[in-house]
UniProtKB/TrEMBL annotation:
Keywords: Repeat. It comes from Thermus scotoductus. GO terms for biological process: proteasome-mediated ubiquitin-dependent protein catabolic process; protein polyubiquitination. Pfam families: NHL. InterPro entries: 6-blade_b-propeller_TolB-like (IPR011042), NHL_repeat (IPR001258), TRIM-NHL_E3_ligases (IPR050952). GO terms for molecular function: ubiquitin protein ligase activity; zinc ion binding. This is NHL repeat containing protein.
Length: 368
């Protein structure tokens, strides 16, 4: 899988969630220690694997590297029991990550980000603090008002980049940024994608451009570039260096220019086109993009920093760049995908929240 000149092997390494019964039938999703329902976020490092089990409104944790496929989780957050389901503490959790030793969870439909000061050791452990609401009891959009410099409306994604904490404030069509991880309703130091902190119009109310968002959903970055998956405009934007004030992007993937939001459904996609890219991750020297509606993950080498309409070098989940079917229109297999959302890179491992298949797949990227 991939181009011979880059000599990259991409192999599935671990399957979390229940096994598939065969054919196009999906793995079972009923809440339990070893099942997932439409997961949208994933994080892993040497200590833990964390999964936003979005459809069950909970977060599952596996301590250490899972020793076997379909291994039961060790801890559940959002409920006190593994068999419980439905909204409670969490309502559609999405992005998850450890940031400076703290576990952060984007509790998207409660319009907040929850913070555990240490890695939770027991099921049902409550969070220690909240971002985007005045207290842990509050769950209304924009902290009960209109768009402002501190509240959220569907915060689906976040990332911590070179001392800056960025949040994809999706419903307000913007990215907010703070110097350091904030708490409560601390005003943002940066509003990216809107003319001020009190605006929330799609594409700034004037049409798609290099400084607009329609549906910013996920973020990732390093000391050189911040990447934003602008899913509603079918593209990924890159800001080099990471922004400290509102400005146009330097990179666009998925579109031929910054002022386009073209969608090309149900035809061969090729290595450059994106449809609803909901996730981005850095893994080795690649930018991984969850090209969700095309049921694939694309790997862009470099990673790219500037330019337009650059091609991917590798595809995961499809046999080639032309195909885009759910599970290749055949069966739920080890190397297929169905609506992948969140992605996370760690060393040579790329974790994919394979939402439509009710599972998380961890892939290994090897140089041959």
């Amino acid at each position: 899988m991939g181009t011979p000149e880059l000599a990259l092997q991409v192999e599935p390494a671990r399957w979390l969630g229940a096994p598939a019964p065969g054919g196009l039938a999906l793995p079972p999703a009923r809440a339990g220690r070893g099942t997932l329902y439409a997961p949208r976020g994933v994080y892993l490092d040497d200590r833990v694997v964390v999964v936003a089990d979005s459809g069950n409104h909970r977060v599952l944790l596996w301590y250490g590297w899972p020793k076997a496929d379909h291994q039961p989780a060790d801890v559940v957050l959002g409920h006190t029991e593994f068999e419980a389901e439905g909204p409670g503490l969490l309502h559609l959790p999405t992005a998850v990550a450890l940031v400076e030793g703290r576990l952060l969870v984007a509790d998207a439909w409660h319009h907040r980000i929850l913070v555990w000061d240490d890695l939770p050791e027991g099921s049902g452990q409550p969070p220690d603090r909240v971002i985007g609401q005045p207290d842990l009891r509050s769950t209304v959009p924009n902290a009960g008002g209109s768009p402002g410099p501190a509240g959220f409306y569907w915060p689906y994604g976040f990332t911590y980049v070179h001392g800056w904490f960025y949040v994809a404030d999706t419903g307000n069509r913007r990215v907010l940024g703070w110097r350091g991880v904030p708490e409560g309703l601390r005003p943002a130091d940066l509003v990216l994608g809107q003319p001020d902190a009190y605006s929330g119009a799609e594409n700034r109310g004037r049409g798609v451009g290099a400084d607009t968002f329609r549906w910013p959903h996920a973020l990732v970055g390093d000391e050189m570039t911040l990447y934003v998956a602008d899913a509603g405009n079918h593209r990924v934007l890159g800001f080099t260096p990471p922004p400290e004030q509102d400005r146009p992007a330097d990179l666009v993937l998925g579109q031929e220019d910054f002022d386009r939001d073209f969608e090309l459904p149900h035809v061969p996609q090729g290595p450059q086109r994106l449809r609803f890219p909901y996730g981005v991750a850095l893994c080795r020297d690649y930018l991984a993009v969850a090209d969700t509606a095309n049921n694939r993950v694309l790997l862009f080498p470099g990673p790219p920093r500037r330019g337009v309409y650059l091609p991917a070098a590798h595809v995961i989940g499809q046999a080639n760049f032309a195909e885009s079917g759910e599970n290749r229109w055949r069966a739920v297999g080890w190397d297929t995908l169905c609506w992948p959302y969140g992605v996370w890179g760690y060393q040579d491992l790329l974790a994919v929240a394979d939402s439509g298949n009710n599972r998380v797949m961890i892939w290994r990227l090897r140089r041959s």
